[in-house]
Amino acid sequence: MAQYKISNITDLYWAENDGFKSGRDPMGIQNSSVATYGWLLRGMTNLTGHIRYYSLYCWLLSEYDSIEQQGTVALHQYNFLRRAELILAFIMKGQNMRSVVGADFAQNRCDTILYDDVYDIAKGADYGEKEKYWAFKSGAFGQYYLGSLIYYNLVKIESGRFYLLTKGKELAQAVKDSVDEEIRSLMLECITEGGLSEEEITRLLPLGLNAINPNSSEWIFLNNLLTKEDSNGLTLRRETVYLVLTACESEVPISNFVTHIFLEYKQLRRSSPAAFGWYFYYLCEALHYAIESIFCYVLDCIDKFQNPPVSVLLDNAVDDLVMLLNDEQQYKSIDEWIKDYHAEIEWQLSEVKRLVKGQDYAKSVIESLKLFWLLYQEFQQNQTAIMDFEQKYDLVRQRGILSEGLKDYVERYVSLPIRTYLEKVLRQVMNEHTFVAIKKMGNSDLDLRKFILENGCAILVEMRYPNETNPRIESLHNFLVDLGYLKIDNTTTPIAKEFLSEYGKE
Asked: I need a labelling partner for 336 at 20 to 30 A (CA). Which of 55, 87, 212, 263 fits?
């Protein structure tokens, strides 16, 4: 008689998965920040590192169209663009510039030689090759830059082919008017032949990403793209350019720009819509960091208590937190605690970050709760302006947006005793993470949960720590350096000083 063995038992197909997958946003709240800085700096991303790619791509597409019309094209459009990207990487090699497509390949694969010190561009670029500078079939153009060029109405894509729109053709012509024909012809020759020598690299330097000629037709076109109002009449990007340049004039590091604008707005309570936008973004980021700090504590407790039953996890986690609360025990409700706590938001956020960095996760939760109170107080003081901003830019439906987040983590609990509140919040972050992870999984086989529940016990999958979004300021800084507004050390140039002096007079 046939017998069943445990080893023969297999999962049902719908219960299988291909393993767990990491992610930057385990609580599913960072889209609200991304959507916010998406309005403030439209037309660029964190991956579009240099504005000259915009004009060079348009010029390359224009040249490909001409070659195709002549019937002499031997390259697929993708490989034409890919070879150009790799050539640009070789042109920029050794110039200490970040965000250059294919830079690592150009730096580390200089032994890819055809003959007589000629680099084999075709072998390093064409998408059919095994070892190439970029895996995505249409290169960084298709993977990183296409969305921005579509936003600016420069190009479109149909049936896997890229086409220039009228505005893109104008930008292509601006490149032709700004770069000598001899240099442009050499670039096209290197692309079609698939080789590049050191001598040719030197001759092609005027096509480098940092070689835009100020006040040329190309410069004027790109400058208008960046510093004029958006096609929909919004001026947030232009205003942000102004704010960045004024911050640089005051010797504020680019890395500290958002905090600087937040503090400036808090002090003055009057400024441009963009300044308010960055103030709002900072508040959202602070809220997210506090929520993720609490989630980090939950994961650490699951690990520390060795995958406990959920009830044991919550009891022990809350006990540990209550032990840290001495003077706070006098308060009968969260509302009393909120009204009696005063500090600066930026200091409180830095305190949470300090504790997380020191792996003191329990104390970071206590300080995160205090950060909630400060954010709630700030929201109440500026509620009308915040709600108007969320409505105007269609942010209210984003998970983690300021108004809804504060309702979920503060307002709904203000009448509760502290211990009850602690348990409610810990349970809430666990439930919300599970909901978000399962929703993100969809029909895929990858599991995004950082802990799982099995037989009533919480089992740790992966520790996750709070992180912040990157709001495109580095890309904007690169653009301003490329256009000659800033030097590499962030000091302003005469171009920037003229922009600042004329700002608002148009």
From this structure: 263
